[in-house]
Amino acid sequence: xxxxxxxxxxxxxxxxxxxxxxxxxxxxxxxxxxxxxxxxxxxxxxxxxxxxxxxxxxxxxxxxxxxxxxxxxxxxxxxxxxxxxxxxxxxxxxxxxxxxxxxxxxxxxxxxxxxxxxxxxxxxxxxxxxxxxxxxxxxxxxxxxxxxxxxxxxxxxxxxxxxxxxxxxxxxxxxxxxxxxxxxxxxxxxxxxxxxxxxxxx
Length: 202
Hints:
It is a single chain. By secondary structure, the protein is mostly beta strands. It has one helix at 16-21, and strands at residues 6-14, 26-30, 42-45, 48-57, 60-65, 72-76, 81-86, 92-95, 111-114, 126-135, 141-147, 156-160, 173-175, 193-195, 198-200. The strands form three sheets. The protein has a six-stranded antiparallel beta barrel with strand order 1-2-5-4-3-12. Strands 6-7-8-11-10-9 form a six-stranded antiparallel β-barrel. It has a two-stranded antiparallel ribbon with strand order 14-15. A hairpin with a 4-residue loop joins strand 6 (72-76) and strand 7. It starts with 5 loop residues before the first strand and ends with a strand.
């Protein structure tokens, strides 16, 4: 459900020191053609959304990951909606839904999806699962969510254009680079990956 192309970009670098120890979680993608990329576009990899574009530096695109402590993502489960903030730890976000902790007693392992609120990420895309439930230092309920997309395991990322909630259009791959720098050498995946309502085979 997109009205723009999906650009495929190879990872250039990840700030590994900060990613493993601290609150700033960002990756940088190659952009050799210096394509103008808007801020706040959704970024996907490995079968799930992982963050959104934040800045552009000549031939690099900065992506802020969901686990960054400054990132907030509207999410939902089968019983609640909430705004999940990055924990500043790899693959972890959390939120404080306004429900009774007793209602979550059997929800460990339940899937978490994008809610579509905010208009950046298409709704109903699975991004993680409930991995812990506790009370934080202020006495508020805290739901810990482990993310599906792992930036340490991915080499290629898709940047998606403007979202359309109710209009289905064709999706065009815009290959900007691969291991050899020649897109015609890329081969299709044996089993296509599903992101929301779209299957990707490369």
